[in-house]
Amino acid sequence: MQQLDQKSIDEVLSEVPSPLPRILLAEDLRKSYGSRPALRGLSFSLQAGHILGFLGPNGAGKTTAIRILTTILKADSGNFVVGGINDEYPEKIRRLIGVLPESMGYPKQITGIDYLTFFGQLYGKKKIAARTNAMALLEEVGMQQRAKSPIGTYSRGMRQRLGIARAIVNDPVVMFLDEPTLGLDPRGQQELLEMIRRVARERNTGVILCSHHLAEIEGTCDDVVILNQGQVVASGPVIEVMRRARQNLTQGNALRIQVPPPSVAEAQHLLEMIPKVLKVTVTSEEAGWLLLELKKRRSETSSEANPINNTILEALIRAEIHVLSFGYEGGRLQDVFLQLTSEVTEWPTDKT
Amino acid sequence: MANRQDIKGNEAGDDQPQSGLPAWWLFFTWELSDLWIGGKALYLTLTYSIILGVLSFVLASNSELSLIPPKEMVFELLKMSIAIGGVISLIIGADSISGERERSTLEWLLLTPTSRRQLVVGKYLAAISPWPAAMVISIPFIKLLSQGDEVYVTAVLWGGIFGSLLALALTGSGMLVSFWCNSNKTSYFVSLGIYLLILVPTQLPGKAQTGATGKLLKIISPMEATYHFLEKTLVNNRTLDELVIFILAPALFAAIILTLLIGYAAPDLRLEPGRESKIRSYWGRLAGSLVITCLLFALGSSPTMAFQGEHPANSELQISIDKVYSIVNAGDAILFDTQVTNMGAGESPPLVLAMNIINLDSEGDVVDPEDWSPERTQYIESLKAGESVDLSWRVNAILKGDYMVYIVVIPEPDSQEGTSQPVASSGIHVTVMPFTRLNPGGVLPYVIGVPVILLAGILILFWYRRRANDSDVTQ
Q1: Which of residues 96-125 of B touch A (CB under 8 A)?
Q2: Sign of dihedral through CA atoms A147, A150, A151, A155?
Q3: A165-192 confidence digits (pLDDT tens)
Q4: In terms of CB atoms within 10 Å, which of A191, B92, B95, B411 comes out highest?
Q5: Is the pLDDT of residue B71 over 80?
Q6: A158: which DSSP letter?
Q7: Contact: B17, A13; criterion CB under 8 Å
Q8: Segment among B57-61, B99-103, B441-445 with least mean pLDDT
Q9: What is the CA angle B438-B440-B445, rounded to 5?
C-alpha cells in the first residue's frame, strides 16, 4: 500500500482554510494510456456540502480523473482519500460515493422503483427498506408519479433525475456528476442544477460536477478545478479564480456594457465622446452589447481604472440610458477558461 | 488550518450492514429478470422449440426418415437439442459483458460496492438459465419420439448431463470473449467462430475418424465426445463402463472454462475491454491451436488396413447357431445362442469369437457390429477334447433391410508370427422391417403446442407490461 505522505497532505490542506471537513483529498494523481499521459499530477480537496466544478476541454482528463476517484480506473501513481478511506479499499470507497456517469444506460424493461430498490439492496438494505428508500428518493427528485413505469418510457430529463436518485441511494459523502445536464433543455438544466444544489445543501454531500457549460459551473459551484491536457491550470473558489484571472485579463483594458437595444446607437455615440475611450464596437445590436477599448497605461492597476468606469457610467445615466450589464471583458469564467486552456502542450510521441 | 484528522476517519472503513443476501444472488436475480422479462431468453427458447418441433415433425412424417427406429430419432433430436442449446448459451454469454458495455450499463454495476467476482458469478448463473428451460422443452419431444421405448429415460438423463456440461462451458466461453470485446457484434462473431471450430470434429467424414488422431479427437473434442457417447449409449446399447472416458472432455472443458472465468478473468473485469493487440494475440493463438489440431487430425486419419493373409484350415473346432431366419422390426433385439465344440483329440488354444453382420441389400457391405451390438466379441480360455461351451448373443436391429449375422471362431495363434484357421458358423438371415408405429399426426400437437404456449407467455408478458405502464402514466 502506498501511504499518503503526511507533509504533502498537510500542505494541500493548508491551502484552503475552512472549518468544514475535507471529505475528499486527491494528491498527485497520474495516469497514462500507453505513452499518452491523461492525467499529470492532479491534486485537490473537497469540503462537505461544497460543489466543485471540473472544467476542461475535451481530452483534458476530467473523465479519467472521475473514473480514478470512483475506483473504476486505477491511477499509475498518486493517492486519494474519500471519507477517511484511502484508495487501497475500492469496495469501501464505493460504499461512500454516488456517481452519475457521463454515458449511462438503463435496463429498459425495469421500473424506476425496482431499479433503485436493486441498488439499495446492493448497498446493504433489506428489500422492504430498500423499496421504501427508493420511493423516498423518487419523491426527492420529483419522479414519484412514474415510479412503476418501465425506464424505457422515461424522457432524457427523467432518466437524469433517476440517475441522481441512483447516485444518492447510499446517502453518499461525495457525489460525482459527469455532464449531468447534457442533452437537456434549458428548463431541464435549470431544474437539475437546482436539485443538485439542494441535495448538496440538505444532505451535506460534497459534489464534483463535471461540465462543459461554463455558466453552469459559474452559477452552481463553490470551487473549481480547471484542467488542461491532464494538468491543473487553476483551482480554488470560483470567485477567487475569476478575481485572479481578471487581474491578468484586464490588462487589455476592455469593458462590456449592455444597454436596451433601442439605445445602442445613442450609447455608442455618447461613449465615443469620452476622452479615454479608444473605440466602441457594437458586438450585438439585438442584445444591446457594446465593447469598449480604453486608453490605459500598462502600469495602471485595475483599482486605478475605477475613475474612467465611473465617468462612463455617469455619462450613460445622465443620458438616461439604462445600464443592463457592466463588466470587464475577460472577467467571466469563460474568458478565464479560454485563456488558461489556449496553450497547447506537445505530448511526447510514441516512437515505437 | 485543517489537519490530517479531517480526512482520516479510519483506514479500513466501517463495513455497512448487509441486506442478508449475497451480492451474487442479487446480481443473479437481477440478470435473470432482465433475461426473461426483457424477452431475450424467451425469444431464444421460442426459436428453439420451433426448431425442435420442425425436426420432430420431419422425423415423424417423412417417409424415409420415419423408417429410423425410435432410438435413432431420439438421438438425432438430442443432438440437435444440444447443438442449439449450445448456441443459445454462447449467445447469452457473449452478450453478458460486451452488451453491458454497449448499452452503457456496465459502469453502474462496477460502481456498486461488491467484488467483480460476485458480479460475474451472478451474471454467469443467470446466463446458464436458458439451458434447463431448453431441456425441459425438449422432454416432451423426446418422450414422443421414443414411442414408449426405455431409451426415453436414458436420453433425458445423459442428454441432461452432457448438455449441462456443454452449456456451462459454452456460456463461460461466450462470457470470456465478452470480457475482451467492446461491442456485441465482435463478441458474437468471435464466439460463434469458436463454436464452429468446436463443431469441426463432428463434421469430418467417417474415414477421417478411424485414424489414431481421429480416435483421440473423439475423446478430446467435447462436442464429438458428447455425440459419440450419446449415440453409443442410446442407439447401440453400449454400457457406461466402455464409454465413461467420453465424459472427460466435456467435464474438463467446463472445468477449465469456469476456472478461467471465475478465477482469472472475473477479478480483472474492467469498464474498457483489454487492448486490441492482446485480443488478437490471445484469440489468434487459440484459433491457431485449433487449426493445427484439425490438420493433425486430418493427417493422422487413415483407413485401417485389414490383414488379409491366408489361413490354414482348422476342422477340429465346430460352431453351431440356434437360429436360421428372423424377422424383426427396426429397433427390436435379436437374441441367439451359439455352441462351440472341440472335436479334436487335444486341448484347444484360447478362442476368440467375433460377430459379423453383412448387409445383403447393399452388395454385401459390412455393417459395423459396434452399431448393432453391445458385445461384438467373446473369449473362451480353451476347450478340452470333446468339450462344448454355449454363448449368448444380442443384436439390435438398427436399419431396415436384409442382413446375414454369423460368428467366427478364431483360435489364438501359438506364436508371435504364427496364424490360425478361423471357423465360421452358419448365418442367421435377419430381415429388419421398418418401424411404422409412429403416427405423424400425433406429433403435431407437440410441434404446435409447445411454441404456442411459449408465445402465449410472451404475449401475456407484453400485455402485462403495457397495462402496468399505461396505468402508471395515467395516474
Answers
A1: 103-105, 107-108, 110-115
A2: negative
A3: 999 999 999 999 988 888 778 888 888 8
A4: B92
A5: yes
A6: H
A7: no
A8: B441-445
A9: 115
**Euclidean distance between CA atoms B143 and B317, whole angstroms:** 48
Q: Could you say which residues from 161 to 200 on chain B have a Cβ atom under 8 Å away from some Cβ of chain A?
A: none
**Reported confidence tier of residue A247, pLDDT bands at 50, 70, 90:** low
What the block records as the C-alpha cell of B90 is 454462447
Reduced to 3 states, what is the DSSP secondary structure of residue A61?
A: coil
- Residues in B 252-291 with any Cβ partner in A closer than 8 A: 270-271
Q: Cα-atom radius of gyration of chain B, to the nearest Å?
A: 29
Instruction: Mutate one of A122, A143, A176, A350 to test the B interface: name it (highest B CB count within 10 A).
Output: A122
**Helix B276-300 with B212-220: angle, nearest 10 deg:** 140
* B474 at A interface, C-beta within 8 A: no
Sign for the pseudo-dihedral over CA of A83, A86, A89, A90:
positive
* Residues in Cβ contact with B228 at an 8 Å cutoff, skipping those fewer than 6 apart: B218, B243, B246
Question: B110 and A72 in contact by Cβ < 8 A?
Answer: yes
Cα–Cα distance, B235 to B70 (Å, whole number): 9
Q: Across the interface, do B271 and A73 touch by the CB < 8 Å criterion?
A: yes
The set of residues, in sequence order, having a beta carbon less than 8 Å from that of B324 and lying 6+ positions away, is B426, B428, B429
Q: Residue B342: is its pLDDT beyond 60? A: yes
Q: Give pLDDT, residue B12.
A: 38
C-beta neighbour count of B294 within 10 angstroms: 17
Beta strands across the sheet bearing A206-210: A97-100, A174-178, A206-210, A51-55, A223-228, A231-237
Sequence-distant (≥ 6) Cβ neighbours of residue B450 within 8 angstroms: B49, B52, B53, B137, B140, B141
Q: Which residues of A touch B107 (CB under 8 A)?
A: 72, 99, 101, 103-104
Non-local (6+) Cβ contacts of B306 within 8 A are none
Contact with chain B for residue A70, Cβ under 8 A = yes
Is A32 part of the contact surface with chain B (CB cutoff 8 Å)?
no
Contact B473 A119 (CB under 8 A): no
Going A257 to A262 to A267 to A268, the CA torsion angle's sign is positive
Provide Rg for chain A, Cα atoms: 24
Give the whole-number percent of chain B exceeding pLDDT 90.
27
Interface of B with A in 337-396 (CB under 8 A): none
Is the entire prediction scored with pTM above 0.80?
no
Closest Cβ opposite residue B17 in set A124, A146, A147? A124
Q: Do A10 and B23 touch (CB under 8 A)?
A: no
The beta-carbon neighbor of A105 closest among B3, B104, B469 is B104
